[in-house]
Design goal:
Shape: globular
Strand content: 15-25%
CATH superfamily: Response regulator
Largest sheet: 5 strands, parallel
Number of strands: 5
Strand order of the largest sheet: 2-1-3-4-5
Length: 123
């Protein structure tokens, strides 16, 4: 994986496909997965500078996935994407090692700004 590679983890196939395609058009190498289990395998096998993590996955809770990512590579910058009106999940994620959080739906330009900030903070 390239230095600016992104892993998108979300259970909505259309969202993942669209986001990966848009990120690639902007020069970000990116991949997407639909479950926490797939994400953990990808993180363990690859080098992603940033992970976009949905908190609601079919097989695992996003908090559990975040903990596993931090065990595998604590330098990974994780941006939580939550569709809930409450920001409590995002705030809890930051306490557990996430770089930041965004509430869905999110403007693509706002997401790009967060990705740039995360990339700059990567070791």
């Amino acid at each position: 994986m390239a230095e600016s590679s992104i892993l998108v983890i979300d259970d909505e196939q259309e969202f993942v496909s669209t986001l990966v395609r848009r990120l690639r058009k902007r020069g970000w190498e990116s991949e997407g997965v639909l479950t926490g289990g797939e994400a953990i395998v990808k993180i363990a096998a690859g080098d992603f500078s940033v992970v976009l993590l949905d908190m609601r996955l079919p097989d695992m809770d996003g908090s559990e996935v975040l903990r596993e990512i931090m065990k595998i590579n604590p330098q990974t910058r994780v941006i939580i994407l939550t569709g809930h009106a409450s920001a409590s999940e995002g705030e809890e994620g930051i306490r557990n090692g996430a770089f930041d959080y965004l509430i869905k739906p999110v403007e693509f330009e706002t997401l790009l700004e967060k990705l740039q900030a995360a990339k700059k903070r990567s070791p």
